[in-house]
Amino acid sequence: MQKERSPISLFRSSTKGFSLVEILVAVAIFSIILVLITGATASTGMNVRHSVNNQQAANLAEEGIEASRNLRDSSADFANLPDGTYGLSTTGDQWNLSGSSDTQGIFTRAVTITSTGTHQKKIDSSVSWADQYSGTNSHLATSYLTNWRAIYILGNGLTINKSVINHGGTKVATDFGPFMANEIEMSLGVATMMEDGPYNITETSDPNYDQTFSGDCDSTGSITMAGNPTVQCLITNEEKLSYVKVNKTVINHGGTKVSADFAPFKVGADTVTLGATTVHDSGTYTVSETNDVNYTRTFSGDCDVSGSITLVPGQTKNCTLTNEQIAVILGNWANPSQQSSLNFSGTQDGMKVQVQGNYAYVVRADGTPDFLIIDISNPASPTLRGSLNLTGVPANIFVAGNYAYVASQDDNQELQIINITNPLIPFVEGTYNASGTANARGVYAVGTTAYLVRDTSTSNEFVVINVSSPALPSLVGSLDLVATGYEVYVTGNNAFIASGHNSQELQVVSIANPASPTIVGSNDISGSTDALTISGHGSLVFLGRSANVRTYDVSIPTAPILISNYNGAGTVADISLNFANSNQYLFFTTANSNAEFEVINIGIPATPVSVGKINLVAYNGIAYDPVTDRAVLVGPSDPELIIVRPQ
User: Fold this and answer.
1) How many other C-beta atoms lie within 10 A of the C-beta of residue 121?
2) Which residues pair with 545 in a beta bridge?
C-alpha cells in the first residue's frame, strides 16, 4: 500500500518534471482567470454608478417642478413664471429663474414653461448628463400648474339653466343631460368656477325638439369667460309642432250627400277644416265627423281602421274619411203601395216636392205654412221639422245644397231663396223681383245661377239670375219665349222648357252666353195642350204633356229627336227619375182615375215599359228618394203628403 501524500507534496511531486512549455501554459490560464474576476467586479461598479446618476437626475428634475410651483405660489397671475426655458438659482430661501439652464455637478437642468391657458402652465423639467459608463443621458419630469389664486380672485361663475317647452311630449330638463362646457360636466342651475377662455355649451340633442341658446351664450352655444363675475347660458328645447290634414270622399248611390253634410270634422276635440293642414300637439287622437246611418265610413291614410291617428313632432299626417252610401236593395215596383202619410194644417194642396238627403221640401198653394221641411229618413213615419209662411203663393221648388229656390206668384218676389242649412229653422235669405207682373212657374239652379220661367206676358218669360250672393240676387239676362214656361231643366249650356207655346211645346234655350240667352231648338206637338213638366238625364229629356210622357234625344240640342211617347191615360202633372244603381225608372203622377201614380222602365228609351201603378187621388208633385227607394207625393189635403213604397 502506498502512503497518502499531502496536497503540497502532491503539487511538488506533480511539478517536479514539468517542461518549460507546460509551465508557460499554466501561467497563461491563471492570468485569464485573474482577468475575468477583475472585469466582473468593474462591471458591477459601473451599473451601480449609472443607477445613482439616474436617481440624482430624477431628483433634480422633480426639484425643477417643485421650484416652479413655489414660484407660482409666490405671486398672482403667474408673474414669476413667464414662458421660456430657464435654469434655477436661489436667493435666501426663494427660487429664481436664471439663464437658460443651471449645472449641478455633472448634471445640467433646464426648466421650460409653456402657457396652455389663461390660468394654466405646462412645466417641463429636463436634466441631462454624461458619464464614462453610459455616455449622454437625460430625464424629463412634466407637470401642469393652475393659477388657482387668479381664478379665485376673478370668481368666474358659469351657470347653465334649462327650459323645455312641450307640445304634447313629456320631456323634462334632465332628459337632455349631460350638460357640458367643453369637457367639463355641469350641473343645471349651479354656478361653477371656470378659467378664462372660450367654452362651447352642449347637451344631448333630441331630433323632436328644436334647440336655442340665450342669455350670455351666443346662438351656437358659445361663451367666453373673461373676468366676468357671473354669466349664465339658457338652453331652450321646444318640441317640434305636429300637423294633420283631414280629407274627405263621398260615394253616392243615388243620394246627394256632399262632404259638408258630414261636418263638423274633428281631430280629438278640435274642429278642423277639410283639406287644410292644421297644427296639433303630438300624441294619439281620434278623427271623427257627423255620422249618417245611410252611409258606411272607412278610414285610410295615416289613420287606422277606427280613425285613430298618432301625430309625431315635425311631421304631417293625413287621414282620409270615405263615406259610401249604403246601396238600397230596390223593391219590386210592380205592386207599389202607400206606406205612410202626413197631413198639414189647413186645407191648401201640396203643389211640388223635392228630395235631398233625409228631407223632403214641399210648397203648398198658399196657407200657413206654405213651405215645409219633412224628415223622411224613416219612411214609415215622416215628420215635420221646419216651416215658413212665404209672401205670395208658391208654385214650384228646386233644392240645391243649402238653399231651396221657390218660384212664386208674388209680383215683387218671383224668386224666393230660402236658407235650409238648419232644417229646423229655415229662413228667407233673399228675393228677386222680375220685371212685370207675370207669375213664376218653374225654377232650376246650377252653381251660382238660377233659371226662372214665368207666365206669358209682355215681359220676358225666361230669366237668368245670379245667386252667388243669395241675399242679393241680380239679373244676368232674359228671353221672350212668346208663351208660358211651366218648368225648366238645365244641363250643360242649354235649358229645356216645358212650354205653353202651341208650336214649340219643347223649347231649347242656349245659355252659353247667359247674358243673352237665345232659342236654338224646339219640338212641336200636334194640338194646343200645354206641356206642364220636364226632367232629364244625360242626353235624354222627358216631357209631360197631356196624358203622355215623351222621351227626346237632345244630344244635338238644336234638333231634339222624339224617341218614344208613353201614354199615361191621364194628364201628366209631374215627373221624377231614378238612374241610381244602374236603374232607369221614371215615376210620374197623372189624372188617370185608376193610376194616379205610375212607374215605367226607360232602360230602352225607345220602348218604355210600365212596371207598376197605384190608384190614388190626383197628386200634383212627385220626387223619388234613392236613399230609401221611396216615392214622395204631394197633392190634395188630408193628407197633403204620402210616401209610396215598392212591394
Assistant:
1) 21
2) 531, 548
Rounded CA-CA distance 588/624 in Å is: 10
Give the whole-angstrom CA distance, residue 519 versus residue 201. 82
Low-confidence ranges of the chain (pLDDT < 70): 1-45, 76-77, 148-156, 227-229, 254, 327-330, 458, 581-582
- Beta strands (DSSP E) in 92-229 are 94-98, 102-104, 107-117, 120-131, 135-146, 157-165, 179-181, 184-186, 192-193, 197-202, 209-215, 222-225
Whole-number Å distance between alpha carbons of 516 and 477: 6
CA 579 to CA 594: how far, in whole Å? 26
φ/ψ of 54, rounded to 5, equals -60, -45
Distances (CA, A) of 246 to 270, 283, 294, 296, 333: 12, 16, 21, 17, 41
Q: What is the pTM of this model?
A: 0.56
Q: Which residue has the cell 229662413?
A: 427
Q: Taking the CA of residue 118 as centre, how many other CA atoms within 13 Å lie in the half-sphere pointing to its CB? A: 15
Pairing of strands 157-165, 192-193: antiparallel
- Continuous segment of H or E residues that includes residue 342: strand 337-342
| Cell numbers standing for residue 30 | 491563471
For 109-168, the pLDDT digits (tens) are 999 999 887 778 899 999 999 977 778 899 999 998 887 665 544 446 899 999 999 999
pLDDT of residue 24: 52
CA distances to 50, 53, 361, 515 from 46, in Å: 6, 11, 125, 126
Between CA 579 and CA 537 the distance in angstroms is 8
The count of other CB atoms within 10 Å of the CB of residue 204 is 10
- Would you call 106 helix, strand, or coil by DSSP? coil
d(CA 149, CA 81): 14
CB-CB neighbours of 449 under 10 Å: 17
Instruction: At 63, give phi and psi (nearest 5°).
Output: -65, -35
3-class SS of residue 543: strand
Report the greatest alpha carbon distance in the chain. Answer: 187
| Residue corresponding to grid cell 428634475 | 61
Bridge-partner residues for 128, per DSSP? 108, 138
User: What pLDDT score was predicted for residue 94?
Assistant: 87
Identity (one letter) of the amino acid at 78?
F
For the CA atoms of the chain, what is the radius of gyration?
Answer: 55
What residues contact 34, with CB distance under 8 A and at least 6 apart?
none
For residue 178, say if its preceding peptide bond is cis, omega within 30 degrees of 0.
yes
User: Cβ atoms within 10 A of the Cβ of 638, count?
Assistant: 9
Question: How far does CA 265 lie from the centroid of its chain?
Answer: 14
Helix (H) or strand (E) holding 55: helix 20-73
Q: Is residue 563 within 8 Å of residue 548, measured between CB atoms?
A: no
Q: What angle do CA 602, 607, 608 make, to 5 degrees?
A: 40
What is the residue-wise DSSP string for 234-250? EEEEEEPPEEEEEEEEE
How confident is the model over 39-62, as pLDDT tens digits? 444 566 677 777 888 899 899 999
- SS3 category, 611: strand
Q: How many CB atoms lie within 10 A of CB 212?
A: 13
Q: Is 31 helix (H, G, I), strand (E, B) or coil?
A: helix
Per-residue burial over 298-318, b = 16 or more CB atoms within 10 Å of its CB, e = otherwise: ebeebbeeebebebebeeebe
Q: How many CA atoms lie within 13 A of 522 on its CB side?
A: 17
